[in-house]
UniProtKB/TrEMBL annotation, chain A:
Name used for this protein in its record: VWA domain-containing protein
Pfam families in alphabetical order: VWA_CoxE (PF05762)
Ranges annotated as biased composition (Polar residues): 106-130
Organism expressing this protein natively: Bradyrhizobium denitrificans
Ranges of compositional bias, category Basic and acidic residues: 134-149
Region listing for Disordered, in residue ranges: 100-150
Top-level taxon of the source organism: Bacteria
Length: 401, 289
């Protein structure tokens, strides 16, 4: 164990120090591989910590490093395992290993889902059960007309048939436009205005100096507006595989534009993906996502995923001005009663729940799945989302929130 | 190393029953000159850490409570407009000198952040519930925490005379920026275990016996495992312990009815109150005794 073998001899100490610094570099790299954001400064500080005598006892060093390197609860919880594995050679609990250390190429990833889709392999997996050859459906003319000339041919194409990268780019654009029109909300932060509710004394007095102290020009402040918060829960299960890629692009566009937006992915469990999605470059974002998408393309447990969301994320992510957007086909392998209960709880916490169901756009589809029947009473808007036109049709609704 | 052990001792001496890792965090704060970010559920004693830290360093505690819309004039500094107006009136006729005069120290109102960097002895600066402030304030704070200087347009740059010990707390109602997290040391404050909670009760509530404190701590731990909407924190435990001591309860088993009736100190929503029925209370009391 290199970290506790220091002897008082000077040359030995030097050698030990060099060895330690080398090991420290490797440790920092391990942390980065596990999704910790560790910068140069942290590395230097870690060396300083070791030099200050913390390297003597593993327990102490672990505690010191934990404070230094962890930056949030999830990292705080995982750190001990990683530290022990690296410095003390113990086995890491399997959970911390899967959450990032595994090479992305080996795991079934969303990236590969998307690539497969773009490579025109068509709907796969569970989509086989459902009719795959229906004609593009007219969304009923409620779509916006701006930009229609470019989107026109695409607007009515089911996302399942979006293959060409250019079309995907257009979908991204539509998503970005959607995000921009969302109405903004009032906050308590003020902005200097010529007309406003409150006097800005500081600026008023400053201006009055040139008039010998007579405040002729009054300066006001008024409330600044801020965007509504959007929380997207995207179903990444097998039955949704044909749509997942496009919706990931959509979510990426929304997170780009919205400062207050969060995204989650669920299949059999829930994953928080906002951080990965905030990557500017869409391809890189999808790359990062692939690490989290363990089990994507399998079954869905909507109820349990919502339970996780309500229990661990809702307090942080939701406030009274939030809109929750669930994108799912409602094919749930879990308990519908649980789904109903969790939907009711979610309903109490946010302003609106929008449920987008790609299959709603298909001819002859009725919400028969038990899961969706349990969820529907709590949903404010239940809408199709299988074409760009149907997504665009959401604009006016979301703008009214 | 030595610093860490000293801190652990003095934290205990000033009545803060810390978990082992907190002493390390405090020692690192001094070694690396970084702020400490404390996260955890409401009521686990995050604010208390700052208070204990102030008494460990025998220094002043300066507190900034964050809220949405918190801005520079209430966090950093503000000019005393009333006095400025008076001064302008009083010196009517000498417009050349008046501007220099009214924008001087005499007319400056210190707010917590400015006060914290202008003390002779480094104070503890507690920035409470940073997650309630908005992104703009967070960005501003980040700048202050790295440079420790403030520029006041009318007065010039104010450099820190001492670098305060900064403690930030967050309840996690909003995700903090990565930049701020990276700038800080991180410590997650969890609910204390039974033993530590019992010691906290003993330290804080005069008149509680060791056996009662242990019973209370066990019962609260049992309660935290029930599915509650609002899990009781340490502050609630202390309230409840004080109530029981005030009502002259010696042993929880003797008065299960009273235990149930005083649970209002711990359960703060209607649903939780309804969920913990008399039977559940009886079961919990049975377990702890």
């Amino acid at each position: 164990m290199s970290c506790c073998g220091a002897t008082p001899d000077h040359e030995d100490l030097d050698a030990v120090a060099r060895l330690l610094v080398g090991r420290l570099g490797a440790f920092v790299k391990t942390l980065r591989d596990n999704g910790f954001a560790v910068g140069l400064q942290e590395g230097q500080d870690a060396a300083a910590v070791m030099a200050a005598g913390y390297a003597g006892k593993p327990g102490l060093l672990r505690s010191a490093f934990k404070h230094l390197f962890a930056a949030r609860k999830s990292e705080w919880d995982r750190f001990d395992g990683l530290f022990d594995a690296f410095w003390l050679g113990k086995r890491v609990r399997s959970r911390s290993l899967v959450s990032g250390a595994a090479p992305a190429a080996n795991s079934p990833s969303l990236k590969s889902l998307q690539d497969a889709n773009a490579g025109q392999s068509g709907p796969q997996g569970a989509t086989d059960q459902i009719p795959s050859d229906d004609p593009p459906r007219d969304a009923g003319g409620e779509g916006r007309s701006e930009g229609a000339s470019r989107v026109e041919t695409l607007a009515d194409t089911d996302f399942r048939r979006l293959a060409d990268p250019q079309q995907v780019a257009l979908a991204h654009e539509a998503a970005a436009r959607l995000a921009r029109v969302m109405r903004t909300r009032l906050t308590r932060r003020d902005q200097v205005r010529r007309k406003g509710q409150r006097l800005d004394l500081r600026r008023t007095i400053h201006r009055s100096i040139s008039h010998g102290g007579v405040p002729i020009a009054l300066v006001h402040r008024r409330r600044k507006s801020k965007p509504l918060r959007l929380v997207v829960l995207l179903d990444a299960s097998g039955s949704m595989s044909a749509y997942t890629a496009v919706f990931l692009r959509f979510i990426h566009g929304v997170l780009d534009t919205f400062r207050e937006a969060e995204a989650f992915l669920f299949h059999t469990r829930l994953a928080y993906v906002s951080d990965a999605m905030k990557e500017r470059d869409a391809a890189r974002a999808l790359d990062r996502l692939s690490m989290m998408a363990q089990g994507a393309g399998g079954g869905t447990r909507i109820g349990e995923s919502l339970q996780t969301f309500n229990r661990w994320h809702a307090a942080r992510v939701l406030h009274s001005r939030s809109c929750v957007m669930i994108v799912s086909d409602g094919y749930d392998t879990g308990d519908p009663a649980l789904l109903g209960r969790e939907m009711a709880q979610l309903r109490r916490r946010c302003r609106r729940i929008v449920w987008l169901n790609p299959m709603l756009g298909w001819d002859g589809y009725a919400p028969e799945a038990r899961g969706i029947k349990a969820a529907l009473p709590h949903v404010d808007l239940y809408a199709p989302a299988h074409t760009l036109r149907s997504l665009a049709a959401l604009e006016p609704y979301l703008a009214r929130l | 190393m030595k610093a860490r052990d000293d801190i652990a001792k003095s934290l205990a001496a000033c009545g803060y029953i810390a978990d082992g890792e907190l002493a390390t965090a405090v020692a690192l704060m001094q070694l690396l000159k970084r702020p400490l970010l404390l996260e955890g559920e409401a009521g686990v004693g995050k604010t208390e850490v700052a208070k204990a830290l102030a008494s460990v360093h025998a220094t002043e505690l300066i507190r900034l409570q964050c809220y949405e819309g918190l801005d520079q004039s209430s966090a950093l500094y503000e000019w005393n407009y009333q006095r400025q107006l008076l001064a302008i009136e009083a010196h009517r006729g000498q417009p050349d000198t008046i501007e220099d005069q009214i924008f001087s120290e005499k007319y400056l109102l210190e707010r917590p952040l400015l006060a914290a960097i202008r003390r002779a002895r480094p104070p503890v600066l507690l920035i409470d519930e940073i997650d309630r402030a908005d992104d703009e304030f967070e960005a501003f704070l980040l700048e202050l925490l790295s440079d420790f200087q403030v520029s006041i347009p009318e007065l010039g740059t104010v450099k820190a005379t001492s670098i305060p010990h900064v403690v930030l707390t967050s309840n996690g109602t909003r995700e903090l920026s990565d930049a701020l997290r990276r700038r800080c040391l991180y410590h997650y404050v969890d609910y204390p275990d039974v033993d530590r909670e019992a010691r906290i009760i003993l330290a804080r509530i005069g008149g509680a016996s060791a056996s009662l404190a242990l019973q209370i701590a066990r019962l609260v731990e049992g309660l935290r495992k029930e599915e509650l909407r609002k899990v009781p924190g340490v502050a609630e435990t202390l309230d409840w312990a004080a109530a029981l001591v005030g009502l002259d309860v010696r042993d929880l088993k003797d008065q299960p009815e009273l235990v149930h009736d005083t649970l209002m100190c711990l359960l703060k929503t209607h649903e939780d109150r309804a969920r913990i029925t008399r039977e559940i209370t009886a079961r919990l009391v049975g377990k702890v005794a």
